[in-house]
C-alpha cells in the first residue's frame, strides 16, 4: 500500500498573468490535504474519490489502460502510465482511494483541489513503478497531465502543492509541450525554458483566509478573460510582474510593510483587469471580505481566479476581523501554511 498527501494552495499575487508563459506568481501551500491510497489489484482497477465517485478501469492484453477520461485523476494515471511504457516497465493494475480536506459539505473551497489530486496521484503511481522522479520532474508530469484536460492551466497550484511553503513560480509554454509526441520528450522539451520554481521565506505576518461559500470555475474565468481580450493586457502583465518582484523582494528582506503594500497593489491590479474585461473577479462578497480586512489594518485580496472561492488577508491575527467576516456571510477557514520540505 502506498499513501501520499498533497496540500491545497492560495495565490498571493500574479493570478491571470501567470497563465502567460514565463510570467511569475507567488503562492503558498496550506495544511489541508488530498490523501491518495494506492493498493495493487488483479485485472480491474478502481478509483474512488471521497466516497462519492467511482471509476473502474482495466488493461487490455497489450497493457493499454481503458478508463473513462472524465477527470484529472485519469489524466494523472495516464501520463505516468505512458512514461512507464516508454521506460519498458511492465504494467500493473491498482485501486486508488482519494480523500479530500479541500471541500466543506461537498462544496469545493477553491484551494486547488484538482492540482492537489493530480500531485498526490502522480506521487503514488510513480512510487509504485519506482520511477525515482525528483519533485521538479513530478511537477512537470503533473503539468502535462493537467494541460491534457485544461490547456490554459498555469501549473502554479501544482508547484505549490508539490513543494509546500511559499513559492515563486513561472509557467512553461504549454502549447510547445503539447506538441511533443512522448512523455519523455515533453519532459525535456524547449517548452520548459521560461519555467521556474523557487522557495521564498515566509513572512511572520498572519495569513487569514475567508471562504465566500460560492464555488467558482477557474477555467471559465480564464477563458472569459481571454475572450474579452482587454486592450491594456500588456500593462496588466507588466504591473503584475513588477508587483510579484517587489513582493518577492519584501519577503526575502523580511519587509512586512513592503509585503502588505504589494498585496494591496495586487488587488488593485486585479480590479483594473475586472474593469477592462467586465468579468467579476472580485465579487461583492470578496469585496466585503477585503474591505473588512483592510479596516482591521490587514492587506487583502481575492485568491486565484476570484469569482467566489476564497480571499486572503495578511496582517496580525484578529478575532474581531474574523467575526465581522462571519457577520458578512464569509466563513473563516482554520488553516495554516504547509511548510515546504526544503
Ligand atoms: C487560478 O487559481 C489562478 C489563475 O492564474 C489560473 C492559473 O494560474 O491556472 C487565474
Automatic annotation (TrEMBL):
GO biological process, one term: isopentenyl diphosphate biosynthetic process, mevalonate pathway
EC code(s) of this entry: 2.7.4.2
Single GO term (MF): mevalonate kinase activity
Keyword Lyase belongs to the record: no
Residue span, GHMP kinase N-terminal domain: 72-165
UniProt superkingdom: Bacteria
Keyword Lipid biosynthesis applies: yes
Coiled coil: none
Domain annotation GHMP kinase C-terminal: ranges: 248-315
Pathway the protein takes part in: Isoprenoid biosynthesis; isopentenyl diphosphate biosynthesis via mevalonate pathway; isopentenyl diphosphate from (R)-mevalonate: step 1/3
Entry keywords, A to Z: ATP-binding, Cytoplasm, Kinase, Lipid biosynthesis, Lipid metabolism, Magnesium, Nucleotide-binding, Transferase
Any single GO CC term annotated in Swiss-Prot or TrEMBL for this entry: cytosol
Pfam family, one: GHMP_kinases_C
Protein name, entry field: Phosphomevalonate kinase
